[in-house]
Design brief:
binds zinc ion; alpha/beta; about 10% strand; about 240 residues; 5 strands; disordered N terminus; Collagenase (Catalytic Domain)
């Protein structure tokens, strides 16, 4: 069973395009991770925290839209940490503004491997004045993807791609490729709970029609088991 699960994951990695950060990264605890405004925020370049908060809420809605995953991000208020701090508090993705080498770079993410956290630096030279708010939101969603442990995808439908996905600046929905990446990084533990877990999810669906190989084989094993048990009991009686 485990082999089959592993195999299906490998197949899905090959079939789609999501790429993991190298070395692999994941948040300390995907079930309770917080996205916060960094201590400096973007106020130095005229963007109030409320604008960052609305982008964070969009990112939370976007990345949480994977019920098959255990990932549950939430907005966590203002962080105690600056983007420039040497480490980021555990299980936080903090977002603020700072200088980046070129205006071609809209944002950049650095993962804190020790704390399972990340910092997202939005380019203060781009997002200032009458900046494009859709671009700001789209970039936050993309950078949070890096904060989760995803690298750039080659699937044009993914928010993690560099290719033109026809959305303009603001992603409209999460693609299957992004979903696959999130499920891979943050699997839903209850669905990986072995036989009991798979039995629960199985019974939720209508039972498919008789499958000769599986049903017959299990029935066959059941009959053998019962006959062995009877033989054992009879054997005990005889002794
Ligand atoms: Zn990127």
């Amino acid at each position: 069973m485990k082999f089959l699960l592993l195999l299906s994951v490998i197949v899905s990695v090959q079939a789609h395009g999501f790429v993991l950060l190298n070395p692999a990264f994941e948040l300390k605890d995907g079930t309770s991770a917080k996205i916060k405004v960094s201590k400096e925020g973007c106020t130095a370049n005229g963007i109030p925290d409320s604008k960052i908060v609305s982008a964070i809420n969009r990112a939370v809605d976007f990345w949480n839209d994977v019920p098959e995953s255990s990932l549950k991000l939430s907005y966590g208020g203002k962080s105690k940490a600056f983007l420039t701090d040497s480490s980021i508090p555990k299980n936080e993705i903090i977002i603020g503004c700072g200088s980046l080498p070129s205006v071609q770079i809209l944002g950049a993410t650095q993962n804190d491997y020790t704390n399972g956290s990340a910092r997202v630096k939005m380019n203060a030279a781009v997002y200032t004045g009458s900046y494009n708010e859709d671009s700001f939101i789209g970039t936050v969603i993309h950078e949070v993807g890096h904060g989760l442990g995803l690298f750039h995808s080659n699937d044009p439908a993914s928010v993690m791609t560099y290719a033109d996905n026809g959305w303009g600046d603001r992603p409209k929905y999460i693609s299957q490729d992004d979903i696959d990446g999130v499920v891979y990084l943050y699997p839903n533990k209850s669905q990986l709970g072995g036989f009991l877990g798979s039995c629960t999810s199985y019974s939720a669906e209508s039972k498919p029609s008789f499958n000769f190989f599986s049903d017959f084989f299990f029935g066959f094993l059941f009959v053998i088991g019962i006959s062995l048990l009877i033989q054992k009991i009879i054997g005990k009686v005889r002794i």
